[in-house]
Amino acid sequence: MTENAPNTELDVQSAQDDFNRSAGLKLLWYALLAVIGLALLMVLLSWGSKKLGATSDSSPGIDATNNTISLILSQEPPQLDSTLATDMVSNMVLGHVMEGLLRYDENNALVPGIAERWDIRENGATFWIRDSARWSNGDPVTAADFVFAWRKSVDPANASEYAFILFPIKNAEAINTGKLPKEELGVRATDERTLEVTFERPIAFFDKLVAFSTFSPVQEAFYNQANGRYGADAETILYNGPFSISRWVHGAHLRLEKNPYYWDADRIKLDVIDFPYFTTDTNAALNLFKDGSIAYTGLNAENLQDALNRRWHLDRLQDGSVFFMEFNHREDRITRHRKLRKAMQLVFDPKELVYKVIKLPGFLPGESIFPVWLRGVDGYLRAEYPAPVWEVDIPRAQALLAEFKQEMGIDKIPPLMLLTGDNPASAKQSEYFQALYKQTLDLDIRIDKQIFKQRLAKMTSGEFDLVMAGWGPDFDDPLTFGDLFSSWNLNNRGRYANPEVDRWVRVAQESLDAKTRMDAFGKIQDLLFEDVALLPQYERGVVFVTDPRLHGMVRRAVGPDPDFTNAYIVEP
Amino acid sequence: MLSYTLKRLLQGVITVWFIATATFFAMHQVPGDPLTTDKAVPEDIRKNLEEKYGLDKPLFEQYTIFLSNITRGDFGISFTQKNRRVNDIIREQFPVSATLGILAIIFAALGGILWGALTALYRNKLPDIVIMFLVILGISVPSFVMAALGQMGLVSLNDTLGFSVLPVAGWGTVQHMLVPSLVLGLGTMAYLTRLMRSSMLEIVNADYVRTAKAKGLPASRIFTKHQLRNAVLPVITVLGPAIAAITTGGFVVESIFAIPGLGRFFVQAVQQLDYTVIMGTTVFYGAFLVFMVILVDLLYGFIDPRVRIS
Predict the structure, then answer these.
(1) Of A45, A159, A315, B212, which residue is the least packed, with the fewest Cβ within 10 Å?
(2) Does domain B86-309 correspond to CATH entry 1.20.1250.20?
(3) For A178, which of B44, B167, B173 is closest by C-beta distance?
(4) What is the ipTM of this complex?
(5) Does residue B54 belong to the interface with chain A, where contact is any CB pair within 8 Å?
(6) What is the distance in angstroms between the Cα of B156 and the nearest Cα belonging to chain A?
(7) Where do the domains of chain B lie?
(8) A278: closest CA among A527, A54, A41?
(9) Consecutive 10-residue runs of chain A (572 residues): their mean pLDDT?
(10) Distance from CA of A480 to the nearest CA of B (A)
């Protein structure tokens, strides 16, 4: 017995090992089966998903043999019906597949598009449409196509957000508010190729307006035949631009192919612009670029350093938007008092915000509601009418605030609500202001972080003292910024009202003389500064990187951006 | 069995109705609406818009209209993608999410069972220690980190090899699916591994296993029929909630890998207060998940006869 005991233990142990070995083998066998099964399933699923749902095939970022470039879109274009489109992505795509009467060329100059010439007078305009302009089904583009599209845009039943951009045309506003039928719009086709426009009031920049995508033509017969789905799919749009959409798989893939019917097709060098990726994820975009899967990508604060480390050639520009802190000027708000606002201005240095907080290339410190790129009489508006500047003066600001508190009979200013967006950049900037005003003026700022729609709703209803706001241009004239603080402008969400500013806005709207208008903008700039209606923060910049083989891409502040219509591939 | 199934289905319908109602009223409580836009719209134009979309009606009337529409299976037209029907969005985008989800769940289940069984067999030995360490990692690292790491890994892989082995993002072929579904399933796989391991250890020395050994049955047969089959039951129970976690958690992975799934539309709709898409996707997801849980419960009855009795 004593001899056998250890043996039994050994037997148990080896039996256990035997069991484990054969069980392990069995397990390995199952694992093998699982892998094979999975592989089969994946093949089956990829075949099935092609039949069922959305897929996208992709080629490299630059495909010289097929003369194709691939790019990423931040999202599916929400709306490719030109009468309804409002967002950047849709406008970018529309800029490649549609052409209006006029267009912007590679130097961002206004050049003839579908119209070969035009004549703009005090009370109206005439556009002569070129013979060779064709739709992608071969039909000629006619003046009637413009009449139809413009009427559609102001038709209240169509509910276009950008209807206001047509308001310089006679009766447009009355039609849009339902007071007149849409046939009363001041535009008519005197013959197949002549478009006559009557103005509501004289307008100095109508040529710049018609380059906007809302002014693109739409063929009536085609629109009606699309049965309420115009612009929803590749087949339900008729194209007259350099490219046409050959494939649109929702949420997955957009493919633009050169449009052979485009009147200036010789100018277009690329055969295909492919968008096989839709995502807002900027790191994914950067990874795709690193992989050579896309030819261009924008960069942000998070991935800029990575790009710099790789020694890529980076480009930068201002995207045209101006950002500012808007005060609430409503009766019940303490921010309606100029002394408080002035004190807040005197301690704030936009340069510090841009160079120490934002720290991104391309951004410019804000000095005015008018960005630097706007044109004035002969040169740039801001060169001709320099923005008033202030020196940071903390003691003066403190004295002013003390004076204000005494006038109001209060010891302490109640906490101010700062309404802001929910992205990391807004958070960082809001916290900068919170700290700045606490340290210098002992003001308490409460940050109210809201997602986009809620922020807009609160801005509109006036539930804020301060709001981080911004404005991007709709057309290439200072008025797109200049009327923002007029008392009747609904986008003036702080309800700033100053009769002097209103007067100069009217002058700028009604005058046709460049000098008079620019003088008016100069006055508006001075008045807004004097009254501290807002605190300009920065002009937004964008940093981006392109594949060195891609040439001829155009970036711009107003109009479709980025623009690849003139792009071409150069093999090293 | 039939009456049980019917009862469960009825409960499911009530659950979905409750989800829809709660979402509907909560959504309308949020400040702003789909018509709130960057550019301010004059009052009378806004009225026209509200009329066109039926938002001028009292909330309860909107609710009854919504209910009668969904019973007919019509979720309406998206506010942000103005000419697209919500039904089309679901029909085109859901198969993608489902494919990704199915693959992820299969990865997770197979991997969990295999690794779990392996660790139980080699308890406290090297494979067990290594795998259990990885399991802790898998459970604690969120899927968006995994997804980002996975994508970076793909970039370096393609970079070092000099040609594109697997695409970095996009959708359509087996190569596109491999990494995203693996990443999406990883957390669940880790969780299932742990579950499988403990349930295997519980029965390793169960009476019936000992009996089977005493009978002289071959080891591979004992392992498969007596151990694996019994240990796998708890794993199947949690598959229902796991499917829920994976299909709804797919959004981040979809976004990082630019996969045209439904999750992305769902999240965007919430941000843009696109009422019709929010309701459509919520009701659809809700119904889908409730159905999945019922299905797993019924399936459980087939695998474990003891459950069927109740």
Answers:
(1) A315
(2) no
(3) B44
(4) 0.86
(5) no
(6) 8
(7) 86-309
(8) A54
(9) 53 76 84 88 75 68 91 90 90 95 91 94 94 94 96 89 91 91 94 95 91 94 91 92 93 93 94 93 91 91 84 88 95 94 95 92 92 92 93 94 93 94 90 95 94 88 93 92 93 94 94 93 96 95 92 91 93 82
(10) 12
